[in-house]
Amino acid sequence: MMSELRILRAGVVEYHIMAEAMKEMQQQRIEDKIPDTVIMVEHPEVVTVGPKAVRDGVVVHGYPTSLTDRGGGITWHGPGQLVAYPIIKWAIEEQSIREIIGRLEDWSISALAECGVTAYKDPSMQGAWVDGHKVCSIGLSFLHWVSRHGMSINIHTPGTRVEDLEGCGMNAGVHSSLSQLGYTSDPLGRPIDLARVEWALLASCERNLGRSPSKPIEWSPEMPV
Hints:
Blueprint: E1 4-12, H1 15-30, E2 37-42, E3 46-49, H2 51-55, E4 65-67, E5 74-77, E6 81-87, H3 97-114, E7 120-122, E8 125-130, E9 133-143, E10 146-154, H4 194-209, E11 212-213, E12 217-218
Parallel strand pairs: 1-2, 1-11, 1-12, 3-4
Antiparallel strand pairs: 2-6, 3-5, 6-10, 7-8, 8-9, 9-10
């Protein structure tokens, strides 16, 4: 029987607050106090700075920043971006970081296909790409094979805030959003917004993560996990 994946819908939460909530959940998942969980959230604008960016001496100008312990360099988060954080205890047969990242890539690509958008992988950088631009970023950390952090999908981000940033060591303009690339509605005219992409992620979750998603639960970091 396929295990259930609890879905928490957190709304808009500051990144540093969610980062602390994720640490708590990761420890609780290690101790089997909570089930496998994915948090769906949107952040106010922030550029997270990973250990690689710190080592490389990357300086971010014109954006609020927050240090993070996930893999990778710098990543933009903000309005119009849906973030999915998997707090999952991966089984022995699943314990390959590359394969777990591949599952998340496939998950985002499948979800975008549900919205009528053709996305794909690119060997230059992990994530999901559309029309030569990166629209989905992935960065994880693990403790006892329980994952924390996750992936972000740029849907209708403001202005050129994403495009102007040299995210993950790539040139400005490589990262973009669906709306900037002209994908604002599907072939039937339905809008591609955060709610639609969340629905698409849930619809494609089982075949990519091997877990059956629950009905989303409205949640905030002030609530018990």
